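Q: What would this chain look like folded?
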Amino acid sequence: MSKSMQNNPRSIIETILVLLLLLSLMLALYDVVKVFFGVLTFALIFSVSFSDIFERLVRLIGNRRKLAAVIYSILLVAIVALPVLVIVGAVRAHIRGAIDWIGRIRASGLPPLPDWIGRLPIVGGDIQVFWQQLQDSPRDTITHHEEQVRMLLRHALTSGVGMISTILQVVVGIVISAFFLVSRDKILQPIKATVAHLLGRRDGLTLLAATTQAIKGVSIGMMGTAFVAAILAWIGLAIAGISFSLILAGLVFFLVLIQVGPLVVWVPVVVWSAMQENTATTVFLIIYGVGLLAVDGFLKPVLIARSGGKLPFLVMFLGVIGGLAAWGFTGMFKGAIIMAVFYTLFTSWLQKKRMSTS
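A: My prediction, written as structure tokens:
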């Protein structure tokens, strides 16, 4: 501390007040920006994952980056819109089918439950008892399970609203990613200058490279997991002889990418197969769906950690799992970046200590 600071308590107080003001400003900025974390997360995923393809498109159309951005946005939004239209069409078809099914139940009662469902391990007996109660006294059974039915409907409603919100975030994220790709150097330049000014050119660029690699690892891991899940889903649906298996696989890719998961597609397919009394196909789809869910759950953190470049596997793995548990979907990026920054700063500090003691 300088002599002027030591002899001037007012300067110390003013410095503290300025720091507190800056801290308050940063917290307020975080509150404003955190609303857009989902959109920015998708923008990062698309801009990192498709950067090479975008650059090839730019060269193909004569280095016109803005035109390439427009083409890129239209194509990706169309790819996203197709699964959405499939979802809407499927929901409308299922609603009509559900209305007809309810009408048949009112006229002739519930149909008997297939025997093989009652023989399912763990849950088969409970399902059979519940179905029998519904056949004998439907009003009393529904009244007895009123709270569970309410929770199920509430969960379905909130999940639907959440999916619509996520779809909108994806579309806006695609548009923002186009801006990132068009003016990539202009966006990175002030970030590089700020980090270099705060930490020095060498440490700043090293930290920025680690952060970029963490973002790239998460993006590649998420896209890779969605791609693998879609391929596996297509193979399973094709083996089971399900119609429109390619479209359903594309839907699985989209749902895994937005962190909804493959069950939104798989459960209706299993239910439909059970209603057709295809016992062998239904059992196969149930077993295959469990495997698909395991791939979605375990492959993602492993693939992200493997894509971390020079960052150790354990550092990226802990960052992704911890961030996902703490903050949800966007937490995978937050956790990976936090662990990458911490690891880079810590190793840089250790290197400087070794150099100073040697």
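The two ends are 29 Å apart (CA to CA).
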